[in-house]
Amino acid sequence: MKEAVPFLKWAGGKRQLLPEILSRLPERCVTYYEPFLGGGAVFFALAARGAFRRAIIGDQNRELVDAYLGVRDDVEGVISRLARLSRKPHDSDTYYGVRAQDPARLGLAARTARLIYLNRTGYNGLYRVNRTGRFNVPFGRYKNPRILDRDNLRAASRVMQGVQIRVGDFEAFVEKAEPGDVVYFDPPYVPVSTTSSFTAYDRLPFGPAEQDRLARTLRRLRKKKVYALLSNSDVRFTRGLYEGLPLEAVKVNRLINSRPDRRGPIFELLVSSLSRIPAPPA
């Protein structure tokens, strides 16, 4: 049976960093928490290896969370609507017509299909909204984007049966985490330059105050002896936030920057709440 992989592209996706992340997570845990879900690469990889008994995943971005709920709860409805969209002409008129739809007026399956379509056909797979919360990414001009992947959507739906998926702030999200659980934090990264900031993928900002609150949350999990792993950009500000905690710099290729000459190898930080990966729960 096909293993599920992300059905959405997302800024900061973890495909390249995935082996480094997985090598630093326990083989098994009781409950897995991921409050900055994005494309879900880590969640799907852990699900494939049966790494958790339960999972609680989500994001503060309601439209993103609705897409996961739509695939979990009505995958055939999503597939049906994506099939209709895939039969339309692949041009800017079709794209902007779909983009102009008000998701609040659509049912769950239609909202999900709309987001997947825009994600697959919009510029660089970005998710970006304006100040009123409306999606405003321009047409991507791909020659032949794969809008519908029936097998993967069905696989993702199977994986998410029984998984809690919710909108929420990261701090409240992990409040009930206990020893034996695992948390993975993949927040909007601290910008490494003025041209590489993609923190505004939701109407709610994620600036220095939120980064500081996240660092305090990780330290509270450390006191509770909950194993947590966090990824972020390797800059002086981030290193200062997590000073004294186990951290490592790993090399990745940056694919998203408004200037092509600044795309390429960079270092990112992986920060752990505990110095040792805990043994699997009994």
Structure description:
The chain is an alpha/beta fold. It folds into two domains: 18-60 and 170-272, Rossmann fold; 67-156, Orthogonal Bundle (Adenine-specific Methyltransferase, domain 2). The chain contains ten helices and seven strands. It has helices at 18-23, 41-48, 62-73, 75-86, 92-99, 108-121, 150-160, 170-173, 208-223, 236-241; strands at residues 29-34, 52-59, 164-167, 182-185, 227-233, 247-254, 264-272. Strands 3-2-1-4-5-7-6 form a seven-stranded mixed beta sheet, sandwiched between helices. β1, α2 (41-48) and β2 (52-59) form a beta-alpha-beta unit. α3 crosses α7. The longest helix has 16 residues, at 208-223. The model has no long low-confidence stretch (mean pLDDT 91).
Helix content: 25-40%
| Annotated CATH architecture of the largest domain | 3-Layer(aba) Sandwich
The top-level CATH class of the largest domain is Alpha Beta
Note the overall shape. globular
Total tally of structural domains: 2
The CATH homologous superfamily name of the largest domain equals Vaccinia Virus protein VP39
Q: How far is the first residue's CA from the last residue's CA?
A: 28 Å
User: What sequence of helices (H) and strands (E) makes up the elements?
Assistant: HEHEHHHHHEHEHEHEE
- Largest sheet, if any? 7 strands, mixed
Radius of gyration: 19 Å
Question: Any low-confidence stretches, pLDDT <50, length ≥5?
Answer: none
